[in-house]
Amino acid sequence: MTDIAPSPENVIEFPAVRVVFDKGVAWVSLNRPDKRNCMNPTLNAAMHQVLDALEVDDRCGVLVLTGEGNSFSAGMDLKEYFRETEAKGHMAIRRAQRDSYGWWRRLRWFEKPTIAMVNGWCFGGAFGPLYACDLAVAADEAQFALSEINWGILPGGGATKVVTDLVSMRDAMYMTLMGELIDGKRAAEIRLVNESVPLAQLKTRVRAMADVLLAKNPATVKAAKDAVRRVMTMTFDEAEDYLVVRQESLNFLDKTDGRKEGIKQFIDDKTYRPGLGAYKKAD
């Protein structure tokens, strides 16, 4: 899906992962197209390196996660992640789990906004990074499934937790027990993703969303996306207290004084309307 012309300045190749930079966006592609971008130990280890690099790279203002070829990811590699790892014993299994679950966890709390661009198959374990991204857009033609029931295991790696967090109990139960395919349109209907568009329009739509995010105060975006995830497990009173303290810490951490500047541009300068867009950041 990353069709920007390669050059040493805008492409970094990692084992089984490709990163392309373009105007503030880092397009991160799981790069095992011959295996439908199944996640193996090599890819999972590489994603830790990718996230380390992008958190401090000014070329990345928004991270878009997608897959090379015609798949987002078909989940965990059955041969390398399961069979070969299990043959090495219990601790090898635990190490493999730490690497995979670990980069999904890091992606959930990444310093910059993230978008999952689901261009094709998204099965099982791929629900982990799908959920880890702040926003998700699918191609109408994409295919989603929790197929684990069909080969004798539970949807693990957090996949069961993902569907129970994102969709209704009835839809979560249906996906888990039936193991059937749904397309991008249906995934959007049940809120597994934000929206779906025809595949030919997918990258254009994601680029437009990324540009909206890039125009906003990055410190505020980070605080806001973390707040959504944090308050999901809080009581209302706990959430009120957390959000007061989080805003106070943001006031201190945002060295651009974005809150004051935004209010000034609205009340004094009358140069924008908060309901219609973001205030203009300083260059």
Reconstruct the topology from this structure.
Elements (H helix, E strand, L loop, with lengths): L10 E4 L2 E6 L2 E6 L10 H15 L6 E6 L3 E3 L4 H9 L3 H19 L5 E5 L2 E3 L3 H6 L2 E5 L3 E3 L13 H8 L2 H10 L3 E2 H6 L5 E3 L1 H16 L3 H14 L4 H18 L4 H10 L16
Parallel strand pairs: 3-4, 4-6, 5-7, 6-8, 7-9, 8-11
Antiparallel strand pairs: 1-2, 2-3, 9-10
What would you say this structure looks like, in words?
The chain contains eleven helices and eleven strands. Strand 1 (11-14) and strand 2 form a beta hairpin. Strands 1-2-3-4-6-8-11 form a seven-stranded mixed sheet. It has a four-stranded mixed sheet with strand order 5-7-9-10. It has 283 residues and is an alpha/beta fold. 37% of the residues are buried. Residues 1-6 have low confidence and may be disordered. The longest helix is centred in the middle third of the chain and has 19 residues, at 90-108.
Distance between the termini: 31 Å
Assign the structural class, choosing from mainly alpha, mainly beta, alpha/beta, alpha+beta, or little secondary structure.
alpha/beta
Gyration radius from CA atoms, angstroms: 20 Å
Main sheet makeup: 7 strands, mixed
Count of strand segments: 11
Record the strand order, biggest sheet.
Answer: 1-2-3-4-6-8-11
Low-confidence stretches: 1-6
Strand content: 15-25%
- Percent in helix: 40-55%
Shape: globular
**H and E string:** EEEHEEHHEEHEEHHEHEHHHH
Overall pLDDT score: 88
- How many helices? The count is 11
